Model the fold of this input.
Amino acid sequence: MPHLEVLPRAQAPAAAQPTYDGLHGKLGFVPNLYATFAHSPAALNGSIGFGAALAKGELDGREIETIYLAASEANACDYCVAAHTTVGQLQGLSEAETRGVRTASTGDAKLDAVAALTLDVVASNGRPAPASLDRFFAAGYSKAALVELIGFVALNTFNNYVQHIAQVPIDWPALQEQEA
Done:
């Protein structure tokens, strides 16, 4: 039995219920991962709030989803790969780009620089190779964008780790398998 389960709205703490309503209004459903975060309304609302604050920075929706998707791949989180494949496409990534992001091979130099740095940050526990940073800056990104990328990686890693422990059932469309 998982140590954390998905909480239906009726079982969620009162402080989490407005967030359930907001998610349902925005997405048409409450993703299982967020319904698991609801064990701690502070974690649920903090996670959503941190992501919303970072989204007001320099990176656009495609770049943000590239970070989330690459970090989810690096952290082997199938739930989050499925979620960010879907949301990435809603933000304008093509299906091929959502597959390519996971290996930093989209064919778009800027997205590939973001994906490569994200993969390197996760794999190196926050100590990416100078070449990854150089590639990111050469693609035209600023120091502010670098700090935001690190923030998105941190947020996504939190989400991935909750998923790993909770083993939340995937409620997003099925993953497209990486082509061999």
Confidence is low (pLDDT under 50) at residues 176-180.
